[in-house]
Structure formats: C-alpha cells, structure tokens
Design goal:
Two copies of one chain form a homodimer. The first copy, chain A, is 44% helix and 19% strand. By secondary structure, chain A is an alpha+beta fold. In chain A, a hairpin with a 6-residue loop joins strand 9 and strand 10. Chains A and B meet through helix 1, strand 1, strand 2, strand 3 and helix 5 of A and helix 1, strand 1, strand 2, strand 3 and helix 5 of B.
C-alpha cells in the first residue's frame, strides 16, 4: 500500500490563499523597513552548532534542531558515550550543524564575520523562517517566520525612536490597533540594586507583573518565598506603589532610584525615548511598563513589547537594546537595538479581526474557457495580448464541460471569464462574463482589456 | 579566546546588494508566474524522511540532510547497528525528518495530502530554498533556491505551450538571450524500442548527445562498449543521421518510428508543442533536441531545457511532464507538467553580463545628517513627512563628524543628503545635497520632497 503522506508535527503547509495573506504581512513589513532605511540580508538556514549553542540558555540548546553529519557520522563519535547514554555530548559529535533558532544570533555572527565589508552603523532587516523543537501547541510552531530590523554600531536613542515609529507605521498599515509598552533594563537593575538584591531582577519583575492580578499582599508573600528578605520587600513597596500618568511615574522612579547610577540612567533613557517619540506623534498607545522584562539576559537598555488591543494573543512584536551580542564572536563594544515582528501571531490577529484585504485572496483576473482546438488557439492569442497589458490571465487547459470550467473559475474567485465559441471565433470576438454581476458583453480583446483593467 | 565565526561549507550569507539582486530575480519570476495564473504555496523546510527517501535514487538518498530526533534519540536505536557500522539503517532510526531536496516531491505530497481541498487542474508556484549534501564547488551550493511552476491534473499540451511562453517572458524581462530545447520521453522510448533495446534509453541518449563532439564512429564504438548489439547500432544509424530544420527532422523521426506507437505519440506531442508555441511568437530560440534526456526516470512526456546564449554555464531552467509522481503517495493517474528556474545560475548569468538594473543596489533616497540634539529633532520631523510621501529616508543616528556621515551615505549609494544645521534650523529649512552632481539647494521639506521624488 502507498504511504499516507503527512508533514512533521509543528510544521505547516500554506495554501495559495494562506500564502497570499502571509505575503501581504511580509510585504507590508518589508516596505516599511525600506522606508526607514533598513537593508535586507539573508543568512543560511543551517549554522554551525558552535555559533548557536550556549546563546539561548540551557533550555534553548535543547530546542535546537541538529543536522546529522553526512557520510560516516559515527567515525568520529566516542562510542563510550553511546553506552553511557550521554546523548547531549554524543549529539555534538554526530552533528556539526543546526537550524537557526532566531535571526539575532545569526545576525551578530554576520556582523562579526563581515566586519571588514560593513560600514557601521549597519541597519539590516531580515525576513526568514526559524526552527525550534518546542512542543507544538495552538499558535506555537516548530517552523515560523521572524521579521527583524536591527541597528548595530550606534548607541543613539534616536534608533529607539525610529523603531517605535516604524512599529506604529506597520500596524497602522495593517489596521491593527496596538499598545506599545516600553521599559529599560537599567531601571530593573537599579531597583534590584537599591533593595539590596542585584541577583533577583527576574523575581522582582515577575512580582511587579503580577501586581494587578493578585494584589500587593500576595506579591509580597511570593517575594518572600523567592528568598527576598523582609527588609528588601519593604524597600520595594514605594516602587510597587508608583502609579499615575507616565511623567509622574518617571519622576517617582527617578526619586526612588536616586542612589543608583544605573537606575537613573535608565530613567533618563526612558524619558528621552518616550518624549522623543510622542513629540513626533504616534497613533498607537505608548506607555512605560516597569514590569516588562522580556529576554532579560539579552537586553541591556530599552525593552519594547507590542500587544494587539482587540485580540488577546500575547506579544506580537518585541525588541530592545543589547550591548554585548557580538562580543561572544570576538567583537566587543558594539551596541545594537532591534525589533522582531511575529508574523504568525499577526496572521492570527488579522484573521480574528477579519482584516485581510479582499484582493489578497484573488490572483487571476480572467480565465478563458476552452471550447475546442481552434477556439482554444484563438484564446491563446487573446491571452497573450491580455498578459502584455499586464492582466493576469489563464486558460482552462482541458476541453471540459462548460459547467466544470465555470465552477473552477468560481472556486478560484476569478472575476471574469472569457468565452470564445464557434460564433465568437467567426466574428473575431469574445464574450466576457462578469462573474459577480453575471453581466455579459461581446467585445474584441482590446475591449475586454478595457473592461477588466478598469 | 572568542570563537572565530563562520558558516557551514556550501552555504552563503547574502549582503544587502546581493539580497536586492536576488529579490530582483525572484520578483521578476513571481510576477510572470502570477501573470500566467499560477498561485503561490509554501511547504515546510523539513519533511518526513519517509516522504523524501527513495524519490531521488540511491545517490539522492545520500544527499539528504537528516535531522537528529529531539530528546533521547538513542532510545529507539538498534545498538547492533552501531557495532556493525551500518550508518544508513541507523540514520533512519536516529532521524525522522530531513530537509527538502527539491520542490517537486513536496508538491506531489502536498497535492495528495490536500486532495480534498484542491480543484484540479491545480496550478501552483513555489519559490523556496532546498538543501543537498553535495560536495560544494563553484556554482554548486548546499542551500539554494528553486523557483517552480507546475500544473497537475491536466494532460493538455496547452500547458506545455503556456510554460514555454512563460519561460520566454521571464528571460525577456531579465534581458537574458536564451535557447530552449525540447524533447519527448516517448520519442526516446520509441527509439530504444525499434532498435530492440528498450532498457538502453540512457546509453542511447548519451551517445546521441556526443555525436557533434566525437563523431559517429566513436559514438558507435561507445554504444558497442555499452552492450548494444551491432544490429541495434545499425538500426540506430538512420536516427543519428537525421538533420536539417525542425519540421524535416520531425517527419524523418515519424517515418523511422512508424512501428512504435509510443514513439509516434511522442512525435505528435512534439509537433503540437513546437508549432503551437511558434504560432504565438517567441523571442527565444526554440528547437527540438533528441539528445535531451534530463531527469529521465522522472519525466514521461515533454522535456524542456533552457540555456543562456551569451554565457557558458549549463542549464538555467528545466522541466517536463511527469505522469506518476503522486502515485507513490497513493494518488495514481494524475498527470503533471512543470518547470524550475535555477535562481543561482541566473544570478551568475546576470552578473557575468552586467545586467542587474542599477536601482536594485539602491535603497534609501535621502539621509539626514545629524548635527546635534535640536537639529536632529527637526530632522526627525522632516523625516516623518518624507516617509509619509513614500520616500525611503533615514537619519545618521549619531552626532558624528560630517565627513564620516557623508562617507557613510556615499558607501550606501544614497543619492541625497539633507542637512539641518544651526542656520537651517533658524530658517525652518534644510540644505539638500545631490550626491551625484554635488548641487546644493536650500529648501523646505515640501521642496525637498519635490526634488527627491522627481
């Protein structure tokens, strides 16, 4: 029996309509990236495992897809690892390459590898798939696209302001209403510093994040469980109590962080980014969120996160500033800042809100029916003229029943059908049928081009 | 010491200029695919190995990149295979997935898997990378793009005529002069049949192919070495002697293949395809080539191959008709025909002939210089207006020396630089410098938009 075909779990096929809709997202993002002066690069799907390993934490290492070496992959393997079942170390001997896990680490590798050909600051965008051996679940895939824009080699906060405007422009074009939250890693470091627990940044931000949901008493209890001293919890209280409009919160933060140089610098940066962006006018909500801490080990300054206002789906774009990413590849002291659009979640938002433009589902403007050898030959000539006029056109390739041909055109949402039968052939004309209105007109090819192109 | 970064051999990074040039090729092909009514689909980079294995011959199986199973990949492995060193069988236990080797087998899998959602005939295009563990060499990579268009579910020869026109249109848009060679697998089968060696199709076509280079006597000697009887070689002589214009060769073939039903059908199909296409007018050379046999085990009818006339680089596009491709996945009786553009070789041809349009290297139309906080703030406002007018614009993010900023703009081939210094700031204007002519004008933002957009 023939095998029943399927694809690996967590991966997807994309039909013509789905592909067209995804391209609508990619094209929109790409166009805005270009408008902002970002230039496209592409990197290979496979990277050396030495490039990828250790960049995403221990958990991330496990989620890398590894590629078995070609040829005799066992030759160089230490057989004792097989007996001891040390699959991690053995994998490193069986596999030299892995699929990229994100676009940021390959970009850092790119910058270092091509440093002599690049003029810093370097602004690049990259729209490519990434792979993670995550447990597949709703909205989480093993192959998905990231759309990244980064600037490296500049620590100017103008870059942050540019990226926030860029985010605003993309979602405005997609008609998705968003809220942008901004934070700064230095503020979090400052808070941890002044309460005397510089090592507890993660616990502190998790606690702040839960404040609205579980209340200050439960937050304090949890912080105690996480090993914060009562004294530290006490010092955190004024920070948990900060509220009000952005500027008021920033001033309160500045006062509370007066003893932390790092913390104050964070507040200054937030001030510059928030005010600089607002001054230029933004359609999206933009606000400070001190609990925001995504990818903490990675970011060193500004942290950005975007959520859709009308669909509950988590973050649809995120990013921030990182100061040390190229250091691990031997090029220290290069600051970078970037954002990543999550195309798959944006797709889900557009679907939920029914926001895809109708024309993304359409392709061909006119289908010629096929009514026999001579008629088809005439249709092929007309087809050629249509295409020369820029009209996407095709012919039903087989001489099938008219009903079948019409239903095929219908299933593909083709707006016009051109019919050349015996009488049209004799007259050198065609009957053009509008599939929406049912209206028919007997015209020559030029006339049909005029109607379809209108 | 930090690791020195590199990428796996046979893979490539693409710089902004290279990416823009590749996109020029992809966009051109995509636009023509759409004009001809093909719709885009995408399939995952990873397929189940059961989908890929056995589809590309024994050699092809070895060239598949296999992905190590996640988690305890040794658990299900037969340890005796490790001792016996049977790496092939062991690999099948360590790996369930592989990277796709081409786009045709995944497409056949797609058609069968989604058969209930498809209206046949189904016309799809697909532009995605494929991976092969080939020995890397000049012009041969381990990751490269294919650009495929196929029609399945129709055996009409109109599809072949459409695809030949499509090829002509693509290369005409790219300004590459080409020769298209066409053959038919049934003609090759017919020749093998009438000389009494139906199993020797490959040897016969190889011999015909060498005719021009080594002469008829050497060809006959080689056929003898390959096991053809003197009688069979004798019967082949009239076929080797066929020459002259296409129609004369087709008639001669028809006469010689009179006793082979299959052979005659092949000649008829060639006749219909060649005449049908020529009648519509083609810019490319189009001719019959009886020695053409690419991917023989795969094609069952028409075979197509395209070469560039002005660069010696081998085939830059190829394709043909296959009748049995979905059969292996449990859906027999579906005929398909398709073509595949080799983007990497097309890139090399365009480079060799210096045919990339100049604008593909450009991106940003204007760079604002950064002359300090207040000046940059004014520039950010002007920048916003420029972008709203559709002009790709950016600001040099750091307050660096003017010379450095200008040389950065220059290195990126940015045609205009806008300068807002102290005096421009006071006047509410900017100095716009044309980087080609050196011309400068003091204008307001609207005026600059007028000049740049012109």
């Amino acid at each position: 029996m023939a095998q029943k075909p399927s694809i690996p779990k967590g991966t997807r096929d994309f039909s013509p309509v789905e592909t067209a809709r995804r391209n609508y997202i990619f094209d929109t993002i790409r166009e805005v990236f270009r408008l902002y002066g970002f230039m496209p690069i592409e990197t290979p799907a496979m990277e050396n495992l030495s490039t990828l390993m250790g960049k995403y934490g221990e958990e991330g290492d496990k989620l890398l897809f590894k590629i078995l070496n070609s040829g005799d992959y066992l030759a160089k393997a230490d057989k004792s690892l097989i007996e001891s079942g040390d699959t991690n170390r053995l994998a490193a001997q069986l596999c030299e390459k892995g699929l990229r896990y994100d676009l940021t680490v390959p970009f850092a590798r790119y910058v270092v590898q091509h440093r002599n050909d690049l003029q810093l600051p370097f602004k690049r965008f990259q729209i490519q798939p990434v792979w993670r051996a995550d447990r597949p679940q709703k909205g989480r895939y093993r192959e998905f696209y990231q759309c990244d824009a980064d600037v490296v080699g500049s620590d100017s906060l103008l870059n942050e302001i540019e990226l926030l405007q860029l985010i605003d422009e993309v979602f405005s074009r997609l008609n998705i209403r968003i809220a942008i939250k901004v934070n700064n890693r230095k503020v979090l470091a400052g808070i941890a510093e002044i309460i005397g627990h510089p090592d507890k940044i993660v616990d502190i931000t998790v606690a702040i994040d839960k404040l609205d949901k579980i209340g200050v008493e439960n937050v304090n209890a949890e912080l105690g469980e996480r090993g914060l001293t009562p004294e530290a919890i006490g010092r955190l209280q004024p920070i948990l109590a900060i509220s009000g409009p952005t500027d008021k919160r920033l001033s309160a933060l500045a006062a509370l962080l007066a003893d932390s140089e790092t913390g104050l610098r964070g507040v200054e940066e937030l001030n510059a980014v928030l005010h600089g962006t607002r001054e230029l006018g933004l359609r999206a909500d933009l606000d400070l969120d001190v609990s925001l801490a995504r990818g903490l080990n990675y970011y060193t300054g500004t942290i950005i996160e975007v959520k859709a206002l009308d669909v509950a789906i988590g973050s649809i774009t995120g990013g921030g500033r990182y100061d040390n990413l190229t250091g691990v590849f031997g090029m220290p002291g290069i600051s970078g800042v970037g954002i990543s659009f999550g195309a798959d979640r944006i797709y889900d938002v557009l679907t939920a809100l029914d926001l895809f433009p109708e024309e993304t589902a359409k392709a061909t403007a006119v289908m010629f029916a096929n009514l026999g050898h001579d008629e088809a030959a005439a249709a092929m000539k007309a087809l050629k003229e249509m295409r020369a006029a820029g009209i996407a056109a095709e012919i039903y390739p087989d001489e099938a029943k008219m009903k079948k041909q019409m239903s095929w055109a219908d299933s593909r949402a083709i707006p016009y059908v051109a019919i050349i039968g015996e009488s049209e052939l004799a007259e050198g004309k065609l009957t053009l049928k509008n599939m929406t209105t049912g209206e028919q007109s007997l015209v020559d090819t030029a006339g049909a081009i005029g109607i379809i192109g209108a």
